[in-house]
Structure prediction request, 167 residues.
Amino acid sequence: MSETISHYRIIEKLGEGGMGVVYKAEDTKLGRVVALKFLPPGSTDDPEARERFTREAQAAAALNHPNICTVFEIDEVDGRTFIAMEYVAGPTLRTEIRSGRLSVDRALDIAIGIAEALDEAHARQIVHRREGPGLRARTARGLCSPHTDRDDGRHGGLHVSGAGAGN
Prediction:
């Protein structure tokens, strides 16, 4: 795929689920790789879905933590709303667990990293709606979240809610 949206050149599709469609893309202005998340097909004309998507981006953008992916912007081009965020290379936690190579010490480090990220979000009245091993990727520097709805070993998605939301 070689489509360009705004100043992002789509490289490949990373995943798709109920929360959106995520692509790996090149930010042609800054020369970096990012993840672009779009509303799922069929939701683009739904004002409520677009509002939830915007709230999701705003909530995630309010967070600054090494274990939480950075949101760069939310934009709309030709009626397609998208969130541009940090792309995290590396396997998901689910992939690492399934490999059978996850030591107890490493599992504890990961659990602590997840708890610290959730604590940061909760301190800002933001509740993560879904949590699971397919939503987290490990990098050389640690853990980063969130990711696609499906675990295909690649990443870039987000699932957060604003204050008062849950589940």
